[in-house]
Design goal:
CATH architecture: 2-Layer Sandwich
Order of helices and strands: EHHEEEEEEHH
CATH superfamily: START domain
Distance between the termini: 36 Å
Number of strands: 7
Shape: globular
Strand order of the largest sheet: 1-7-6-5-4-3-2
Radius of gyration: 15 Å
Number of helices: 4
Largest sheet: 7 strands, antiparallel
CATH topology: Alpha-D-Glucose-1,6-Bisphosphate, Chain A, domain 4
Length: 148
């Protein structure tokens, strides 16, 4: 199991950050390996909602479906992959800090197949991708991009 965790402070209110990162239509804007993100259920995000994703990671196109397993607005959310080539789960934790938001993203990835053989490279690349995505998110939101 590969565990990754990164935190970043974003100079935006926690409500803004939470809403932006929990709108699947924004996912491909800030996540560097994500090509598509499509909710498979109608209505607002909540526990049990399924989201289909298409990613390009290490030159490989990956299609997966993730299920929201925890959802507490402005505080935390979690997911697990229910179909796709890489079993994983993850979570976002948000904390308001003097008008800014501390966002912590965590992931547990079970590398199999090709990714198991290249596990050290896979872990390093996943960590770098998370760091890049969070930095991109920070830049977008702090530049005044309207998250709504």
């Amino acid at each position: 199991m590969t565990k990754i965790e990164r935190s970043i402070v974003i100079d935006r209110a926690v409500d803004d950050v939470f809403e932006f990162i929990h709108d699947p239509t924004n996912d491909a804007v800030w996540q560097t390996t994500l090509l598509e993100s499509t909710p498979l259920d109608e209505g607002p995000i909540d526990v049990g909602m399924m989201v289909r994703e298409v990613r390009r990671f290490l030159g490989v196109r990956l299609e997966l479906t993730r299920e929201i397993t925890d959802y507490e607005p402005t505080a935390t959310s979690a997911f697990r992959v229910v179909s796709g080539p890489v079993p994983m789960s993850g979570a976002y934790e948000l904390e308001a800090v003097d008008g800014t938001t501390k966002l912590t993203a965590k992931g547990d990835i079970e590398a199999g197949g090709f990714f198991r053989v290249a596990r050290p490279v896979f872990a390093k690349m996943a960590d770098r991708e998370l760091e890049a995505s969070l930095g991109h998110l920070k830049n977008l939101l702090e530049a005044g991009r309207k998250p709504f």
